[in-house]
Please model this.
Amino acid sequence: MRRGAIEIFQINNVKECVILERINKFVAKIILDGKIRRAYINNTGRLTNHLSKGKRGFCIVHKKDLKTDCRLFAVKEDSLAAVIDTYLQMKALEKIITLNLIPWINGCRILKRNARLNASYIDYLLECKKGKAYLEVKSAVLRSGGYATYPDCPSLRGRRHIMELTEYAERGGWSIILFIAALPDVKAFKPNSSADPKIAELLLKAEKAGVEIRAIEMYYNPEDCYFYLSKSDLPVVF
Model:
């Protein structure tokens, strides 16, 4: 555990595996308990830096008979692990919000999930002391040097969300885009202009329009099977 990191929740029934290859968007081939298995992946990004052959990962073994044998949720980085599972990232974030561990939205509560905003659905509508805020969350698990970056491939959906929140901010609304840097030991978040230059351009425009661009850092610790919040206000650079 890194100094200052806060326990969020523990994962049970975890086994370490070796990644062989990604078969398709949702399935990877792995070695688990000495046998070749199929692991479910809950992340539609390319994840090329995490799912390369020989990487060591962490799986939750299914208790029921499913099309896959387990769920690959984290990939080892030195003694810790990056969290690639977007569902578990969001589950951790919801607990973090409930526990008031993020100072810039302290006292806020989740009023609604998948809240409609014009033609889009935004991850959360928050109710705070100073009003309501739309909060869109993006997973930033691509490492570039000391930075967590997003996206790792062109994202039309990501562009649309940013544009919707920008328009809302221009009309006087409160909107936030939060990047979850689910990687240990990053110094800041920055947009990945090489993967999608339009995203970087739209984020800069959003910030100028009054959208809050925020980031937090979390990771998984294989030693105690806990998720940790390590930085509640990770710097954002453009």
User: Anything to note?
Assistant: Residues 156-170 form the longest helix (15 residues).
